[in-house]
UniProtKB/TrEMBL annotation:
<dbReference type="Pfam" id="PF01007">
    <property type="entry name" value="IRK"/>
</dbReference>
<dbReference type="GO" id="GO:0005886">
    <property type="term" value="C:plasma membrane"/>
</dbReference>
<keyword id="KW-0407">Ion channel</keyword>
<dbReference type="GO" id="GO:0034765">
    <property type="term" value="P:regulation of monoatomic ion transmembrane transport"/>
</dbReference>
<keyword id="KW-0406">Ion transport</keyword>
<dbReference type="InterPro" id="IPR013518">
    <property type="entry name" value="K_chnl_inward-rec_Kir_cyto"/>
</dbReference>
<keyword id="KW-1133">Transmembrane helix</keyword>
<dbReference type="GO" id="GO:0007399">
    <property type="term" value="P:nervous system development"/>
</dbReference>
<feature type="region of interest" description="Disordered">
    <location>
        <begin position="386"/>
        <end position="405"/>
    </location>
</feature>
<feature type="transmembrane region" description="Helical">
    <location>
        <begin position="88"/>
        <end position="111"/>
    </location>
</feature>
<feature type="domain" description="Inward rectifier potassium channel C-terminal">
    <location>
        <begin position="192"/>
        <end position="365"/>
    </location>
</feature>
<comment type="subunit">
    <text>Associates with KCNJ3/GIRK1 to form a G-protein-activated heteromultimer pore-forming unit. Interacts (via PDZ-binding motif) with SNX27 (via PDZ domain); the interaction is required when endocytosed to prevent degradation in lysosomes and promote recycling to the plasma membrane.</text>
</comment>
<keyword id="KW-0813">Transport</keyword>
<dbReference type="InterPro" id="IPR014756">
    <property type="entry name" value="Ig_E-set"/>
</dbReference>
<dbReference type="GO" id="GO:0034702">
    <property type="term" value="C:monoatomic ion channel complex"/>
</dbReference>
<protein>
    <recommendedName>
        <fullName>G protein-activated inward rectifier potassium channel 3</fullName>
    </recommendedName>
</protein>
<feature type="transmembrane region" description="Helical">
    <location>
        <begin position="156"/>
        <end position="180"/>
    </location>
</feature>
Length: 405
């Protein structure tokens, strides 16, 4: 019955016949979605979802049912040419010149043919092929000297002027697009790397999530800064299911430590406090979470071109190692500091890392500090109380004095 309902529901969007296995899969997906509507963790039994951002920084997103997509891309033709692959860029480059040569070659041949004097108005031009060669020589400024326009035909002179203008426009557009494509800062990301794993460990007595970022070039990344977001499905209080809810992860924006000096590899630190989305997550919860994804972003300006680049990566819950710490990569030598990238991705386990959440750890520390404070106050009070009451002193006065202390 459930499979039949699913088949009727999806019959409007499926082009071909629906297989029984596909029907059962859709029914199972619908059942999982229904369970997720009651509880945010109702989908934990499903297989891990696809990454939203790949390890190489590519976003796993496709666009469908876009209205007037071609028209919108043509309206922004320059950006389209910069973004397309090189093979299509070469096709556009070749076709633009061929079409302009053919168009003006046909125009010259038509002008001479209409007036019926191929030899008077256009010298050495007795066929369409000769007109095409003249068009090519005019636009590329080759000028072999055999074909030319005479002053007897002002219309042909105007065509030559127009072709020179069109040729300059095509040259400027193609050269600009090629240079912009070559200078794209996207390739700079090939020499910016993130660690394969993120780690959770204690730092300065606080539970922190850390990952490492490095620059493989000696040229600097100007104004480099890092950001991070947590992507996870969530059900709102009103019952609305959000497939990917974005929650910001503070990596030091308030204090300015999100801006890094990326000469040697830097470990980015997120302190798990009461404002962190990981505040109530312990080790077991993290290891069993199949839908959590941490997207990390590094932004900065390329020193050579002053163009802004953005490098991205992500960590699933299975790639976040609880109770681990990164190996050192920076070593001091006699006359310099040496970075050994063979240790860049390596981690080692810290046995005494607490497995509880940061919230529970903070509560434990608060209880211990409260007990210590209570014992200290009692000790001070006992020291201020005289071991023997002074003769003739009212006991009520002693009690009042003790309370004041």
């Amino acid at each position: 019955m459930g499979a039949a309902r699913v088949k009727r529901r999806f019959s409007a969007v499926v082009d071909g016949p629906v297989e029984e296995e596909e029907i059962m899969r859709l029914a199972q997906s619908a059942a999982d979605t229904a369970r997720a509507g009651g509880s945010p963790t109702g989908r934990s039994s499903r297989r891990p979802r696809q990454r939203f951002v790949g390890k190489d920084g590519r976003c796993n997103v496709t666009f469908v049912n876009m209205s007037e997509r071609g028209q919108r891309y043509l309206n922004d033709l320059f950006t389209t040419c910069v973004d397309i692959r090189w093979r299509w860029m070469l096709v556009i480059f070749t076709l633009s010149f061929l079409l302009s040569w053919l168009l003006f070659g046909f125009a010259f041949w038509l002008i001479a043919t209409v007036h019926g004097d191929l030899s008077i108005r256009l010298t050495s031009m007795n066929s369409f092929m000769a007109a095409f060669l003249f068009s090519l020589e005019t636009q590329t400024s080759i000028g072999y000297g055999f074909r030319s326009v005479t002053e007897e035909c002002p219309l042909a002179v105007m065509a030559v002027v127009l072709q020179c203008i069109v040729g300059c426009i095509i040259d400027a557009f193609i050269i600009g697009a090629v240079m912009a494509k070559i200078a794209k800062p996207k390739k700079r990301n090939e020499t910016l790397v993130f660690s394969h794993h993120a780690v959770v460990a204690l730092r300065d007595g606080k539970l922190c999530m850390m990952w490492r970022v490095g620059n493989l070039r000696k040229s600097h990344l100007v104004e480099a800064h890092v950001r991070a977001q947590l992507l996870k499905p969530r059900v709102t209080e009103e019952g609305e299911f959000l497939p990917l809810d974005n929650m910001d992860i503070n990596v030091g924006f308030d204090t300015g430590i999100d801006r890094i000096f990326l000469v040697s590899p830097v470990t980015v630190v997120h302190e798990i406090n009461d404002e962190s989305p990981f505040f109530e997550i312990d080790r077991k919860t993290l290891e069993n979470d199949s839908e959590l994804e941490v997207v990390v972003i590094l932004e900065g300006m390329v020193e050579a071109t002053a163009m802004t680049t953005q490098c991205r990566s992500s960590y699933l819950a299975s790639e976040i190692l609880w109770g681990h710490r990164f190996e050192p990569v920076l070593f001091e030598r006699k006359d310099c500091y040496q970075v050994d990238y063979s240790f860049f991705h390596r981690t080692h386990e810290i046995p005494n890392t607490p497995s509880c959440s940061a919230k529970e750890l903070a509560e434990q520390k608060y209880i211990q500090s409260s007990r210590s404070s209570f014992c200290y106050e009692n000790e001070v009070a006992l020291q201020l109380v005289s071991p023997e009451d002074e003769p003739g002193q009212d006991p009520d006065m002693d009690s009042e004095h003790f309370v004041k202390v």
